[in-house]
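One such shown below:
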Amino acid sequence: MRKSIRNVEFSFEDPTLTHYGGMFIFQRFCRKLELRRILQRSVCWKRRTSIYHPADLILAILYTMIAGMRRISDTRILHYNNCFQSLLGMENFPQPSTLREFLKSLTPSELKGIIRVHDLLRQKMIAVSIPLTSLIFDLDSTVLPVFGWQIQGAKIGYNPAKRFRPSYYPVLCFEGHTRDSWYGVLRPGNTQPVTIAPAFWAAVKKKIPKYLYRIRMRADSGFYDHKFIELLDAQGIEYAIVADMTAPVKEKIQSLRYHTFRKGGWQAAQFTYQPYRWERPHRFIVVRRPKPESQEEELQLRLWKDRDYFYQVFISNLILTPEGVWHFYKKRARVELDIRELKESFPLGKIPTNSFLANEIHFHLTLLGYDLVNWFRRFCLAGKWRYATLETLHRELLVLPARLVHSGRKNQLKLPPGYIHQKLFYQAIKKIEKISTH
């Protein structure tokens, strides 16, 4: 057995080292997208007396999010990481207080510009991908508890995990084919999705390319409202939305004739019903399954139950069988994983300031960072890596020891010779070079 080294001298003097060597490949992707140029030219930045351009500070926030730093205070470890700074094109990395004060200094017009940049990039990526002829929108919401009673816009509302604690309530829209975030709004914790659904949908609709001819939507019961659903009917939007289990609905589903469509006793049926104050009858789909034997599994199911079954009811105008509507809707479960990744791998749940506007800007930067990673996976990686979580990318690709050296008038990033994903690294670089965004 080889003996371990006993006598070691050490010093803190090599500025060329980094443990974020893999971020080079992601930075190359962002350069290909011309992210800095778009940020500089598409946002009307307010004049500031700072050594940093606002676009560089935005990039610093985005890169640190993707590098796994979920809090602005975590970026303090980058002040001695000259290699990381060189990749960003900065002589030194801004202090956490500088980043926080920058967020608080941004204006509503600059926020609109950041959202516009996100939209421009999304249009670019749609243009370079396989042309889509339809879109599926998955609408959902979540709760972000805040720790502090002086945070602007935080209100006490629905919060099953942290009762009576103020929170924010983001409403989100993802595209079902690509999993791109299409739109999002940050709202106080006492917001009800139905109150903002028409305005939210109007904002989503503005971002839809003109050539698409079919739009479908999946949403939970938070969007079950006659004004919203009748609006979708008028616009020819197809949908499957979870319905509220009102007393008339519960009464109707007890008298239906069900047919079995899946092993395990899964059954489906349908009925037509016009709820109170609705303009016309609508089609309702009912899916039920026997109660599970496991009490733990029963507690995990958030469905209405009677003595023998769990029930779920949808309102839908899709031209599908009842079981077809259920199969279409169940793919929406992916949105739960997307939101979990935003909370666990991205800083969605980390509120950086006590200013609502600054927190709203940070929220939209988080969505932009999420999409940048999503596009990087989709266009630069292959096989199973296209579905890897950001946590996996951190572990296997981005957090990689490296040394940046200057030799022969060239910059060289020296990586470990035994790195097991060298082939993936080279393939990604080749794919990045082939991307055409013009």
Notes: The chain is about 40% helix and 20% strand. The chain has two domains: 17-105+350-434, 135-344. The longest helix spans residues 356-380. Residues 17-105+350-434 form one domain.
